Amino acid sequence: MSNEDTLDQIEVVDGDITKQRVDAIVNAANKTLLGGGGMDGAIHRAAGPELLAECRTLGGCATGQAKITQGYRLPAQWVIHTVGPVWRNGQHGEDDLLASCYRNSFALAEQHRLRTIAFPCISTGVYGFPMDRAARIAIRETRAHLRNSQSVVNVILVCFGAQAYEIHSRALREVFPRS
Ligand code: AR6
After folding, report:
1. SS3 of 70, please?
2. Which residues contact 95 (CB under 8 A, 6 or more apart)?
3. pLDDT digit string (tens) for 65-114?
4. Centroid of chain to Cα 72
5. Residues lining ligand 1, Cβ inside 6 A
């Protein structure tokens, strides 16, 4: 398999996740799944109160796991809620837990036969995960999934701002070196 195998199925954009026209957007939530600040709050505001009502029925979510709801007033039909790890010092399983967020989100996308999915930079805001390290994990997991995917064909990594976009573009070139 060439080094660039699934590169054309991954798009890094600078944008707002609530605006993405995809089958599912991923929400970087907290364990309660009852909303929060940052992007979580923006997703709930854009989706409308029905999203919180459905989230109340889910009983929360453990770190590294994922749960799915409808998207209500969002352009995306579904929201996959995942709970990223809080960064401590990197010695508390943070890398594996972040990788699990991507794997479990992809697993739900496959179960629902979704084709397009947009991820935010999970854990890199309030939860403090170093963005460069998180970006390499996000891209590595995306590449691994696309190589064996049954349903998902396009993945958008949504960066909020120019700096996040630059970091992810660089990480993409690292994970897919030109042969
Ligand atoms: N679209 C895309 N990315 C965004 C948006 C947006 N509209 N808004 C912010 N970001 P964070 P976390 C970026 O803090 O670190 C919530 O309160 C932001 O710049 O939203 O996983 C939850 O309820 C950053 O790079 O998520 C949890 O309590 C990235 O999204 C907690 O925050 C993630 O930032 C989760 O913290």
Report:
1. strand
2. 133, 137
3. 999 999 999 999 999 999 999 999 999 999 999 999 999 999 999 999 99
4. 19
5. 16-18, 28-30, 36-40, 42, 84, 120-127, 158, 160, 164
